[in-house]
Design goal:
The chain is mainly α. 64% of the residues lie in helices and 11% in strands. The radius of gyration is 19 Å and the shape is globular.
Length: 152
């Protein structure tokens, strides 16, 4: 078994797939956070702005679901971002409990700046990998995500 180069990858030790993915994810997140902080905001701020760029204005509870965070966490992020002038809240006609979240002009400018930082962080992460290797990695990550998805 020791001679099998793949035997440790699914084991429970420090060479196991889960541990190695967690370690890479942690280091990647640190690099990502560093780039975003240098650009003026946090990973959380970038994810909210990116989600709104993709989805457009969205109801706050739906945004929390999309980003897979609790309602309380989402409220804290949005409160901070509204105070900074990057987001605004609007009432939803016909639903007094719902609040629509949209990006302001200042938020759009910040999103563009953070997008460049995200591209740089991704380039750092992909350094030395060919386009083919990145394509294979993308497919493998999708499969791994499917293996651990709550409904998968």
């Amino acid at each position: 078994m020791k001679d099998d180069p793949g035997s440790g990858r699914t084991g429970s030790g420090l060479g196991g797939l889960g541990y190695r993915l967690a370690l890479v994810a942690r280091h990647a997140r640190v690099g990502f956070e560093r780039r975003l902080t240098e650009a003026g905001a946090s990973f959380a701020t970038w994810t909210v702005l990116e989600a709104l760029a993709v989805q457009g204005p969205v109801i706050q509870r739906d945004l929390a679901g999309y980003l897979e965070v609790s309602g309380q966490t989402m409220t804290r992020h949005i409160d901070r971002m509204v105070a900074a002038g990057w987001l605004r809240r609007r009432d939803v006609e016909g639903d007094r409990r719902a609040t629509l979240i949209e990006v302001t002009k200042a938020g759009k400018a910040l999103h563009r700046k953070l997008g460049e930082a995200a591209r740089e962080a991704n380039a750092d992460l992909a350094r030395g990998l060919s386009a083919r290797e990145l394509s294979v990695l993308d497919g493998l990550l999708d499969r791994l995500a499917g293996n651990v998805a709550p409904d998968g």
